[in-house]
Amino acid sequence: MSREELKESGAQKMILARLDELEDDVAELSEFRDEYYRVDKEVAVLRERVKRSTTFEVLYGVVLVTGPLLIGLAPSVSAWLAIPGGLLLLGAIIARLLWPSTANGGAS
């Protein structure tokens, strides 16, 4: 638009109306931005909880298998293997009892 056209009251009213629309859009979009950052933070926290829970489950499974395996091998290999096997099994059971339940998402 030329300077002459911009001086017309009709053009100014159109520009002001468009400016109001854009300001409303900015206000609405800023709410979405705030919600996005809140949800993004929540997703990061939940991913970390899942990662910790998965790590615990893997270690728990390994220890739960290794302990009884050592106890089972003790009579045929060496009797002292029953001690670390029993400790591993006991540790796995205690860890399962103390670790927060995975039913609530592994929240700690």
Describe the structure.
This protein has one domain (3-104). The chain has helices at 3-6, 9-73, 82-98. The protein is 80% helix and 0% strand.
Mean pLDDT: 86
> Cα-atom Rg, whole angstroms?
32 Å
Helical stretch count?
3
Oligomer: single chain
How large is the share of residues in beta strands? under 5%
Distance between the termini: 62 Å
Instruction: Provide the number of structural domains.
Output: 1
Structural class: mainly alpha
Report helical residue fraction.
over 70%
Brief sketch in words of this structure:
By secondary structure, the protein is mostly helical.
Relevant terms:
single chain, 108 residues, mainly alpha, 3 helices, disordered C terminus
Task: Furnish the topology, listing elements before pairings.
Elements: H1 3-6, H2 9-73, H3 82-98
Helix pairs in contact: 2-3
